Amino acid sequence: MYVLLHAPFIFANDLSNPIFASMSTPTSAPNFWKEIPRPAFILAPMEDVTDTAFRELVLKISNPKMLHVLFTEFTSVEGMAHPVGRKKVTERLIVSQEERELLQKSGVKLVAQIWGKTPEHFKSAAEYICSEYDFDGIDINMGCPVKNVVKNGCCSALIGTPELAKEIVLATKEGSSIPVSVKTRTGLKEHVTEKWMETLISVNPAALTLHARTQKMQSEKPAEWGEIAKAVAVRNHLAPHIPFYGNGDVFSVQKGLDYTQTYGVDGVMIGRGIFQDPWFFNEQVHTPDESERMKTLLDHVRIFERNWNDQKNFNILKRFFKIYVRDFNGASTLRAQLMETRNPGDVYRLLSAYTS
Ligand SMILES: Cc1cc2nc3c(=O)[nH]c(=O)nc-3n(C[C@H](O)[C@H](O)[C@H](O)COP(=O)(O)O)c2cc1C
Fold first, then answer.
1. Which of these, 125, 145, 330, 349, could form a disulfide with 77 (CB 3.0-4.6 Å)?
2. Which residues have CB under 8 Å from 232's CB, separation 6+?
């Protein structure tokens, strides 16, 4: 059992307070979240999207001035606690040599995201991640609204069990030598933004990212950034030292810059914006021609093949075909043909005209 602090209020930035000092992360690594530029631009963790292959591609076509943090897909601490399950779930934590080199060259940070419901498993997962990998941080998923996950008391369900949520953050920090952050939503059925932020701030995470929707809103209704403004006010009052990021419906760099100004966040996290524009993280809006689009698609497939070979379902790539194959004559026919492909070889044959 982890010692929980029942201090409802922490006074702003009072790091000399012995209560606060005892809650600080037992890290040896500095909190990189405090060192990255403001406003920070962050690519959101996305299941079946942000694996090492896609991250490598994004690093290649982004400007490191406009991309500061990447996340893995969410990885189950319950799976990691089982020797058999661990091998499968930790596929999500693979970082290729090629990605590692790009991270080092660009200075972009990489965070491992974990989820589950058992504090002991969070602690052992954090210990394992810190001893076996080279991530810059660990993030706890308290936002995923998927039914099965939530029914099991994980992810966004933790908003409804705040004592357990706090215990999980403390347990993860206890096992971690790198910064531990939290990504979450504004509530379950209703926004409970301010109370929930107070709860999380009371265990002093290294950073917070708030997706401006409740669990019930899934990703359908528009994000409510007014809730983010409320959360920022709580952060400013109780713990201005905690970097705070907003997430939800940021579909351009300009919107990210505007929202940073308007809502007082330290940066923005972008999820589906990358599906509309893989070149999102650049200073100017980039409008690639057909040839560049197809070459990038081919590069993506080659990186996927190099990393995963037959290990991962090829169909995962089809989501990306729609992203690249658009805005030129014949795009819809080609897209339909790509949807029929069954392996990288089929794609290379279909796009052979672009490989010269
Ligand atoms: C395909 C997909 C997979 C996602 N997987 C995760 C995940 O593994 N962990 C997580 O915290 N959020 C996940 N999310 C939520 C996003 O990180 C983000 O919070 C959400 O899409 C809202 O941001 P947006 O409006 O910019 O898309 C996922 C979203 C999508 C669309």
1. 125
2. 244, 263, 264, 265
- Domains of the chain: which residue ranges? 18-276, 290-354
Give distance in angstroms: CA of 353 to centre of ligand 1: 35
Fold of 18-276: TIM Barrel (3.20.20)
Contact between 268 and 259 (Cβ < 8 Å): yes
Distance 16 CA to ligand 1 centre (A): 37
Cβ partners under 8 Å of residue 338, min gap 6: 318, 321, 325, 347, 350
Model confidence at 213, pLDDT cuts 50, 70, 90, reads: very high
Residues 289-339 pLDDT 10s: 999 999 999 999 999 999 998 889 999 999 999 999 988 999 999 999 999
Task: Render pLDDT for 9-33 as a digit per residue (tens, 0 to 9).
Answer: 333 334 334 334 334 444 478 999 9
Q: Provide the 10 A C-beta neighbour count for residue 152.
A: 12
- The predicted pLDDT at position 56 comes to 98
Of 272, 280, 315, the residue with max ligand 1 atoms within 8 A of its CB, to mutate for a pocket test, comes to: 272
Q: Is the CB of 143 under 6 A from ligand 1?
A: yes
User: Which has the closest alpha carbon to 41: 19, 68, 13, 64?
Assistant: 68
Answer whether 180's CB lies under 8 Å from 138's CB: yes
Task: Decide if 114 contacts 148 (C-beta within 8 A).
Answer: no
Question: Is residue 277 in contact with ligand 1, taking CB distance under 6 Å?
Answer: no
Is residue 144 among the annotated active site residues?
yes
Does residue 39 have a cis peptide bond before it, meaning omega lies within 30 degrees of 0?
yes
Kindly state if the Cβ of 58 falls inside 6 Å of ligand 1: no
DSSP codes of every residue in 107-124: --EEEEEEE-S-HHHHHH
Q: What tokens appear for 15 in the block?
A: 């790091």
* Ligand 1 site, residue 169, Cβ cutoff 6 A: no
